[in-house]
Amino acid sequence: MMLAFSMATADFLLLVVIVAAASYSFTGVHAGAACAPKERDALLAFRQGITSDPWGLLASWQPEDEHDCCQWEGVQCSNLTGHVLELHLSSGHLTGGGLTGEISRSLLSLQHLEYVDASLNNLQGPTGQVPEFLGSFKNLRYLDLSYIPFSGRVPPQLGNLSKLHYLDLSNAGSQQHMYSTDLSWLTHLPLLQYLNMESVNLSMVTNWPYVVNMLPSLRVLILDDCSLTSANQSLPHLNLTNLEELHLSSNSFQHPVASCWFWNLTSVVHLSLVGTELYGQLPSTLGDMVSLQILDLSLNNITGPLPAFIGHFAHLRTLDLSDNHLTGHVPSEIGMLANLTKLDLSGNDLDGSITEEHLDGLRSLEYIDLSKNQLKIVVGSKWQPTFRLQKAYFASCQVGPLFPAWLKWQVDILQLDISNTGIIDRLPDWFCNTFSKAEYLEISNNQISDGLPTNMDIMSLNALYFSSNNLTGQIPPLPRNLFVLDISRNSLSGPLPSNFGAPMLDMIILYSNYISGQIPTSICELSLQILNLANNLFEGELPQCLNMSNMVYLLLSNNSFSGNFPSFLRSCTSLRFLDLSWNRFSGSLPKWIGSFSSLQFLRLNHNMFYGHIPNNITSLTNLYHLNLAANWISGVIPPHLSNLTYMTRIFIMDPAEVQNGIGEFLIFNEFLIDTKGNQLNYQGFGVLEVLSIDLSSNHLTGKIPDGITSLDGLVNLNLSWNQLNGEVPDKIGTMQSLESLDLSNNNLFGEIPSSISNLTFLSILDLSYNNLTGRIPSGRQLDTLYMENPSMYDGNNGLCGRPLQRNCGSNNTSEHGDEKRDEHHSGPMFFYFGLGIGYVVGLWVVFCALLFLKVWRIAYFHLVDRFYDKIYVFVVVTWKSFTRKDDVR
Fold first, then answer.
1. 3-class SS at 524?
2. Which DSSP string do the residues of 12-57 spell out, in sequence order?
3. Rounded Cα gap, residues 706 and 638, in angstroms
């Protein structure tokens, strides 16, 4: 809830309290007349409607207590009359645990009641609605029902509270939502100065500006997240001359920002329009709102330049125009805002330079965010700022090539982001001393060289992000309070320190360096959630840590680790990502691998694991990526693959699934995924979209389980280079999300299921080198795939039909007919082939014998002569015989 009160509003609330105190003379310890028995009974009846009071707010409200009820906690009475005037019942705890029950009708006996604060409780009662009888408290001036999970309609009976100054019905964060279709009851509250209806659905109230314009006393109006659809109504005359705060964030106006009705409210000191989908250029009338102290127009579609009149807001303390589409240069007039403490222009399309002229006058500045623009910070090497920043963000601005010397004077800095700022330099000598108070440093994606400072242990850092630089050398002792360490994608070398010096580390990200040696046993003393040592030069076995139960991400790929599957992982019940690929691990996979109920990503490929895949691996219902390729695994593929229910859905990232800030790890990490016949690089959350099973290059046997076809969210399936037999599952075509299917180099037989042509997203298909037979299914998708990969059917001599140049004949023969025909034709083919080989070999044997053996040669030619004589005699005699018969005729 956005209740950043201005100083004037705070003074107003103080005045309300002072006036009440002067008028009714109540004190924390009541010393006047005792409360009336009727009112005491009403309070006790209210207490009976409370079913839970974990904070003991009503512990002093005891029926057997004969003391004055004005002495009870949360009750204020008049010293003159003894009547109950105020009830302070707020639990004060946003996290819940307040009073549970209902607001009892018995409170109607408190007819002198002027102040009720029941916020931050669960007093919605059985109906869940705001009680209508609250409109009967004629003297009520202050009513706060915020953060009570009410639902249903806002009762218009509240319009009877004609003396009301303060009304808070905000419902932010509740799963239940109140609504109103008519706000005309508000016009009966002429004294109302504070109105908060945040998260009350007002989508049906199109005339809301006209209604609030009839409240001339109104000083604070908060209608954030009320489903309002427009703010471009035309108001001929504005009565809101006392309005100081206007909060309309998180609505969907979707019209030009210049058309809004409130730009002439020159009394406003706080204007908040965050995320309202307003667009277009800022109106010139904004320049007349010179009383502004807080202006927040972030998360909209505002375009055009930042107007120069921004320098006229002499009282401005906060200017937030982040995440819009502002263009052009930042006007130098911004340097006139001497009272500005927060400046946020991040996430726009601003360009040009920020010079000393822009910055010198900002002597009160504590927070600056210029990130995600095309700005260049141009100041002299000896320039000393007039401000002392606490938070500074310049990501993607041009700050380098030298490390900015003016930061030396920012000794109060708590958070600094100078990532991707073009720095090509070393860290200065003053780095650790100047930033000794810093809690967060983000210096990634630069070209900072040499080693890390050796005196980093004097710093107070909680998070250090130094990835993608040119750092060399070893990791020095770290700041003692460090939680997050990311020095990935550098050139660090040598072993890990024997003692990190940071006992609270829970995230170590060191992938893509040249760090060598073994992991020190001291790492077992850390309560790590994330350990990423991938793509280094580590070797040896992992230390057998016993207290790694908090581990969520363990990524050790592309090293030379050895030994069996790490047994200490058995206690890591929260494990979600496990990557041991491209190492030298061996042994069999443990049966308890199925106990990782939260595991989503399991990659063990390119190791030396052997044995069977444990059947209970199908108990990993949250698994979406499984890669066991290139091991020595044998046996059958586990049945019941349909139990991998996470793979049955087309993946859509649910923010609720990224818990405890772990999502930040995914945002800043990359993964090489084997799919579509290549290794593809997926950045951040993109890896969550690749639902994959890769069991290739093993020694698996048996059939492909039919249950695999129920995994219709699967994007990649690779079972190639095994010894699988049987037929391709008939329902393979139901796996509609498949983009890559590789079943090559197995012993599969039978026909290709016709349903395979239904895989319209398929971009890689390889069925080569099996024993498949029959006609190839038709389909435009399959024809396209064949054109891109003509070898996708190779090694299956029984296949026929388009696109192969092999006809299937006149009859559409069955699989068995094809097999018999294949056997029938293959027999004579092998016979003639053998006959030819025998003839050639025999001929050469005879030729060589005649060539080298004289006796054989003489005998051979003697035989030929005798054979020739006999043939000659036979031909002559036969010819004479025929000639004689012709003469006789």
1. helix
2. HHHHHHHHHHHHH---SS--SSPPPHHHHHHHHHHHHTEEE-TT-T
3. 11
Instruction: Yes or no: say if 610 and 634 are a contact pair by the CB < 8 Å rule.
Output: yes
Task: Tell me the pairing of strands 75-77 and 84-88.
Answer: antiparallel
DSSP classification of residue 201: B
Q: Is 673 helix (H, G, I), strand (E, B) or coil?
A: strand
H-helix or E-strand spanning residue 21 = helix 7-24
- Structure token pair of residue 468: 């993608």
Nearest to 555 by CA among 566, 570, 546, 540: 566
CA distance readout (Å), 580 to 126, 197, 536? 54, 53, 13
Mapped onto helix, strand or coil, the DSSP state of residue 205 is coil
Eight-class DSSP state of 452: P
Q: DSSP labels for 214-252?
A: T-TT--EEE-TTS---------SS---TT--EEE--S--
Distance CA 849, CA 742 (A): 55
pLDDT category, 159, cuts 50, 70, 90?
very high
- CB within 8 A of 825, min separation 6: which ones? none
| β-strands 50-52, 75-77 pairing | unpaired
Residues 6+ away with beta carbon under 8 Å from 435: 413, 416, 441, 459, 461
Residue 417 to residue 334: CA distance in whole angstroms: 22
Distance of CA 579 to the CA centre of its chain: 19
CA distances from 665 to 577, 595, 695, 879 (A): 11, 24, 27, 104
Cα distance between residue 755 and residue 12, in whole Å: 74
**Lowest-confidence range among 136-145, 522-531, 719-728, 861-870?**
861-870
Contact call for residues 270 and 264 (beta carbons, < 8 A):
no
pLDDT digits (tens, 9 = 90+) for 851-882: 666 556 666 666 666 666 667 656 655 665 55
Partner residues linked to 75 by β-bridges: 87
How many angstroms separate the CA atoms of 191 and 196, rounded? 15
For 773-828, write each residue's pLDDT tens digit: 999 998 888 989 999 999 999 999 999 998 988 888 754 444 444 443 344 344 44
Distance CA 818, CA 798 (A): 7
Give me the amino acid identity at 146. S
The whole-angstrom separation of Cα 246 and Cα 259 is: 16
Q: How far apart, in whole angstroms, are the C-alpha atoms of residue 149 and residue 145? A: 9
Q: Are 320 and 298 in contact (CB under 8 A)?
A: yes
Output the 3-class SS for 83-134. CEEEEECCCCCCCCCCCEEECCHHHHHCCCCCEEECCCCECECCCCCCCHHH
Report whether 148 contacts 118 (CB < 8 A): yes
For residue 709 the two structure tokens come to 């076809």
d(CA 796, CA 576): 41
Q: SS3 breakdown of the chain: % helix, strand, coil, rounded to 5?
A: 25, 20, 55
The pTM is what? 0.82
Which 8-state DSSP code applies to residue 596?
-
Model confidence pLDDT, tens digit, residues 706-747: 999 999 899 999 999 999 999 999 999 999 999 999 999 999
What are the DSSP E strand ranges found in 329-462? 342-344, 349-354, 367-369, 374-377, 391-393, 415-417, 440-442, 449-450
CA–CA gap between residue 889 and residue 878 (Å, rounded)? 17
Beta bridge partners of 440: 415, 463
Q: Indicate the length of the chain as a whole number.
A: 889
Asked whether the beta carbons of 467 and 491 are under 8 A apart, the reply is no
Measured CA to CA, the distance from residue 225 to residue 155 in angstroms comes to 20
Placement of tokens 């095309």 in the chain? 374
- Relative to beta strand 349-354, strand 325-328 is parallel
**What pairs with residue 367 in β-bridges?**
342, 391
Give me 781's structure tokens: 């998708």
The Cβ of residue 539 has, within 10 Å, a number of other Cβ atoms equal to 15
Cα 34 to Cα 21, 77, 106, 417, 531, distances in angstroms: 18, 9, 19, 61, 66
